[in-house]
UniProtKB/TrEMBL annotation:
Descriptive protein name: Integrase
GO biological-process terms attached to the record: DNA integration; DNA recombination
InterPro entries: CB, DNA_brk_join_enz, Integrase-like_cat_sf, Integrase_catalytic, Integrase_recombinase_N, Phage_Integrase-like_Recomb
UniProt KW Cytoplasm keyword: no
Keyword terms, alphabetized: DNA integration, DNA recombination, DNA-binding
Organism, as annotated: Roseomonas mucosa
Domain Tyr recombinase: 112-312
Database matches in Gene3D superfamilies: 1.10.150.130, Intergrase catalytic core
Superkingdom per UniProt: Bacteria
Core-binding (CB) domain mapped to chain residues: 8-86
SUPFAM superfamilies on file: DNA breaking-rejoining enzymes, lambda integrase-like, N-terminal domain
UniProt lineage: Bacteria, Pseudomonadati, Pseudomonadota, Alphaproteobacteria, Acetobacterales
Amino acid sequence: MLTGPVGEAVAEAARYAGRALADNTRRAYAADWADFAAWCAAGGVAALPAQPVVVAAYLASLARKLGRSGLRRRLAAIAHEHRRLGHPWQSRDPVINATLRGILGQHGAPARPAAALTSTEVKALLAACGSDLRGLRDRALFLIGFAGALRRSELVAIDHEHLRFTTEGMVLFIPHSKRDQEREGASIGIPRGQNVLSCPVRAMEEWLRRARIAYGPVFRRLSAGGQIEGRLTDHGVWRILRRRAELARITVDTAERLSPHGLRAGFITEAYLKGALDEQVMHHARQKSIATTQGYRRRARITRDSPARLLDL
């Protein structure tokens, strides 16, 4: 480990790098690192700096508990903590990489993607909401999440100051998100819908008016008695979706999972099916990689674009 002025500068650089992470990623890494540190302490080995064989053994201990993404995130968290505190880290260490490949080859079940919710399913969710204050909040939550292609962390981070209403619709400013590591922010437009019952802008206006929200968090928790409380959490969005999906009797394929991300995935899927261009989808969904965007397009059009359509069957 480097010491003196150079070591201090390396540690400071690592702290700056840590601040570039999205808040959710930082929290997830902290929890993952705490688990690794506790595992090392129980085994009487050092967590920092960790020997490659120790990291490999830790991954092996989780082989039957975590899927592909979970294992990779644990490894990323360990690497991040080493770099943050100025310890060298070999991203391609042969012992760690060989162990991870072996685990994924034997135990790594493919991750279940979020089921892309269609506009028909979103309308079924709306029908299950009702017209009370809680229902108005949930309607606005689903419609803005769908029409804005928002991640749930972006949904709960919306403040009244981020909204600008016009005759054509609404401009939403997103201060920062998962792929916006430099926190430049982005603005997207959400037009008024043709149907007043499923118009995202009208739903937002009605929720704000009835809840008397003029500043601060837009989506807030409600007490059992209907009192408006603080900002809604990421997990709260998931609970709301699960409850409304049960009421609407929405089910998803067993190879997929019900998740708030399905609102975002559903928007991108339907946009492609209705002829949207890559650049339009990338801008609206704030995607940095064309490969990610085209992955959604392939899944959306997997049957329509199949060469099997050319067969005389």
